[in-house]
Design brief:
Blueprint lengths: L7 E4 L1 H13 L5 H19 L5 E6 L3 H15 L3 E6 L8 H11 L4 E3 L9 E5 L11 H13 L3 E4 L21 E5 L2 E2 L12 E5 L13 E3 L19 E5 L6 H14 L3 E6 L1 H10 L4 E4 L3 H10 L2 E4 L7 H12 L4 E3 L2 H8 L8 E3 L3 H8 L3 H6 L1 H12 L2 E4 L5 E3 L5 E3 L12 H14 L4 H19 L13 H8 L5
Parallel strand pairs: 1-8, 2-3, 2-5, 3-4, 5-6, 6-7, 7-9, 10-19, 11-12, 11-14, 12-13, 14-15, 15-16, 16-17
Antiparallel strand pairs: 1-10, 17-18, 18-19
Helix pairs in contact: 2-3, 3-4, 6-14, 6-16, 8-9, 11-13, 14-15, 15-16
Catalytic activity: (6R)-NADPHX = (6S)-NADPHX; (6R)-NADHX = (6S)-NADHX; (6S)-NADHX + ADP = AMP + phosphate + NADH + H(+); (6S)-NADPHX + ADP = AMP + phosphate + NADPH + H(+)
Keywords: ATP-binding, Isomerase, Lyase, Metal-binding, Multifunctional enzyme, NAD, NADP, Nucleotide-binding, Potassium
Family: In the C-terminal section; belongs to the NnrD/CARKD family. Belongs to the NnrE/AIBP family.
Length: 489
C-alpha cells in the first residue's frame, strides 16, 4: 500500500485537556496566552471565509470556550465589525474566561444576557461549550442553540460545535450545525464520525503548542492511498483467488456485486459459490467471474481448495443452505471477509474464526454481535469498534458516516470520505469484495480494511458528482479502478 507520509492524529477531549495542561506546566504557555492565540486564529479564519461580514453575533458559555468567544468579539470590534455578544451566564471567578470577558468590556464591548435576537447577523460565532459537554444541552443553552439553527446565517464554531460530543460525534440533544469549525491544538476524534459532520469545514490551529506535548493519539484519520504498480511479470496466479460465498434464492445480486468488486480491485481470479439458479445470469453478465452452483458442503469443498481468500456472507441467508456453507467455509481457516448474513449467523452461533479475519458490520449488526442496541453502538462508535475487534480477534470495519477500522491491538482509523448517496442497497457487498480483493493481492487485514474503506468511499464521492440520489453500488466500480491505478479524476 502506498500513501502520503502526512498523519492526521485524532484525540479525545481528556487528551486535549491534558495537552493544555502540559503546554502551561512544561512549555510555559499560560492558558490566557493560548486563549488569545485561539481567538486570533478563529477571527482570521472568519475573515478569510466571510470577508464581507460586518455584523457578528457571538454567543458565549461560561467556560473557556466562552472565553475564546469574548476574545474573538474583542478582536472583531477592533477590526471595525459590529458585534452583538450574548452571554449565557457568568464565568467562574478568577478564570481565564472571566479575564477575557473583562478585556472585551474594557475594549468597549457590551455583554447582553441571552434573549431572542432582534437584528440579523452576517456570521454567528458559537462559543458555548467546546469540548466540555457530553449530555443534552438544557435551559438557556438549548434555547440559544435552537435559535442559531433557525436564522440561516453561517455559523463558525470554536473548537467543537455546541451539542456535539468531541469524543463520539453523538448529539444527545440539540446541536449546532456549523458551516466551519476552528479546532484548537489537536483534532478531536468525534468531529470525524457519526454526526460530527455538523462541524462543517474544519481548520486546525496548533497555537504554537509543540507536537512533542501531544503524546499518543487515540485514533488516526485515513489518508488517500492505493496499491503500488504491478511488476511487469505479474500474472493472475500472483494476485490471489477470491471465492465469494453467497446468493441464496432471490439474493444472487449481492454475491455478484461482491465478486465484481473483488475483480475490479485487481484479484487475479474470482469465483462465486452460489445457488444454481444464479449461475446462468452471472456468467452472461460478467463471464470473468467463475460462478458455480453449490448445494452443500461437498460441492463447496473443491472450490475452497482453490481459493486464497473468502468473501463470506453477501446474500447468504440464514437458512440451512447458508448455514452449512458458512460452517464449512469458516472451517477452511482461509483469510476471510465476513459480512451481512455471515455476521448474523455468527451472532446466532458463536464459534472459532479464521486467524486472518475482517468483519464489516453496520451499526445494527454490531449491536447484535455486542448484545446492545443500535443506539448504544452509535453513542460511542469508537468503543463499539474496539470491543468487536477485541472480542472476535478481528479487524473490524464499523460502517456508517465516518466509518471506523479497528484492530485487535486497539488502533482505530477513521474514514473522512463518503456521502449520503451511499445509503443504497449493495454498497456493503461492494465493500466486502474490495477488501477481499486487497487481501488476495497480499495486504494484511488492517491494510486491506483501511485501503478498502478509503477506496470505496472515495469512489463513491467521484461517482456522486453526477448526483447523490440514485447512486448505485455498481457506479463505484469505474472510479474505483481509476483510483487504484493512481488517477484522481
Amino acid at each position: 500500500m502506498t500513501a502520503p507520509s502526512i498523519d492526521i492524529a485524532l484525540f479525545t477531549s481528556d487528551q486535549a485537556r491534558a495537552i493544555d495542561r502540559r503546554a502551561t506546566d512544561e512549555a510555559g504557555m499560560p492558558g490566557y496566552e493560548l486563549m488569545n492565540r485561539a481567538a486570533a486564529s478563529a477571527f482570521a479564519m472568519l475573515r478569510r471565509r466571510w470577508p464581507a461580514a460586518r455584523r457578528l453575533r457571538v454567543v458565549c458559555g461560561t467556560g473557556n470556550n466562552g472565553g475564546d468567544g469574548y476574545l474573538v468579539a474583542r478582536d472583531a470590534r477592533a477590526s471595525g465589525c459590529e458585534v452583538v455578544l450574548f452571554a449565557l451566564g457568568e464565568p467562574r471567578p478568577g478564570s481565564d474566561a472571566e479575564r477575557a470577558r473583562r478585556d472585551f468590556e474594557k475594549a468597549g464591548g457590551v455583554v447582553h444576557p441571552w434573549g431572542p435576537p432582534t437584528e440579523p447577523a452576517d456570521v454567528i460565532v458559537d462559543a458555548i461549550y467546546g469540548t466540555g459537554l457530553n449530555r443534552a444541552p438544557e435551559g438557556v443553552a438549548k434555547a440559544a442553540i435552537e435559535a442559531m439553527g433557525t436564522e440561516g446565517a453561517p455559523i463558525l464554531a470554536l473548537d467543537v460545535p455546541s451539542g456535539v460530543s468531541a469524543d463520539t460525534g453523538a448529539c444527545p440533544g440539540v446541536a449546532v450545525r456549523a458551516e466551519a469549525t476552528a479546532c484548537f491544538i489537536v483534532h478531536k476524534r468525534g468531529l470525524h464520525t457519526h454526526q460530527g459532520e455538523r462541524a462543517g469545514a474544519i481548520e486546525l490551529f496548533d497555537l504554537g503548542v509543540p507536537a512533542s506535548l501531544r503524546g499518543t493519539p487515540d485514533a488516526h484519520l485515513l489518508q488517500p492511498a492505493t496499491l503500488p504498480p504491478r511488476p511487469r511479470d505479474a500474472h493472475k496466479g500472483t494476485n490471489g483467488h477470491v471465492l465469494v460465498i453467497g446468493g441464496d434464492h432471490g439474493t444472487g445480486g449481492a454475491a455478484r456485486m461482491a465478486a465484481e468488486a473483488a475483480a475490479r480491485t485487481g484479484a487475479g481470479l474470482v469465483s462465486v459459490a452460489t445457488r444454481e439458479e444464479n449461475v446462468l445470469a452471472m456468467n452472461a453478465a460478467r463471464p470473468e467471474l467463475m460462478a458455480r452452483g453449490v448445494d452443500g458442503p461437498q460441492t463447496l469443498a473443491p472450490l475452497l481448495d482453490k481459493a486464497s481468500v473468502l468473501a463470506l456472507g453477501p446474500g447468504l441467508g440464514q437458512a440451512a443452505w447458508g448455514h452449512a456453507l458458512w460452517t464449512t467455509a469458516l472451517d477452511a481457516n482461509l483469510p476471510t471477509v465476513l459480512d451481512a448474513d455471515g455476521l448474523n449467523l455468527l451472532h446466532a452461533e458463536p464459534r472459532d474464526l479464521p486467524g486472518r479475519l475482517v468483519i464489516t458490520p453496520h451499526p445494527g449488526e454490531a449491536g447484535r454481535l455486542l448484545d446492545r442496541s443500535t443506539a448504544d453502538v452509535q453513542d460511542d462508535r469508537f468503543a463499539a469498534a474496539r470491543e468487536l475487534a477485541r472480542r472476535f480477534r478481528a479487524t473490524v470495519v464499523l460502517k456508517g458516516n465516518g466509518s471506523l477500522v479497528a484492530t485487535p491491538q486497539g488502533a482505530v482509523f477513521v474514514c473522512p470520505w463518503g456521502n449520503p448517496g451511499m445509503a443504497s442497497g449493495g454498497m456493503g457487498d461492494t465493500l466486502t469484495g474490495i477488501i477481499a480483493g486487497l487481501l488476495a493481492q497480499g495486504c494484511d487485514a488492517t491494510e486491506a480494511a483501511c485501503l478498502g474503506v478509503g477506496l470505496h468511499a472515495r469512489a463513491a464521492d467521484v461517482a456522486a458528482r453526477a448526483g447523490e440520489r440514485g447512486l448505485l453500488a455498481g457506479d463505484l466500480l469505474e472510479p474505483l479502478r481509476r483510483l487504484l491505478n493512481g488517477r484522481e479524476d
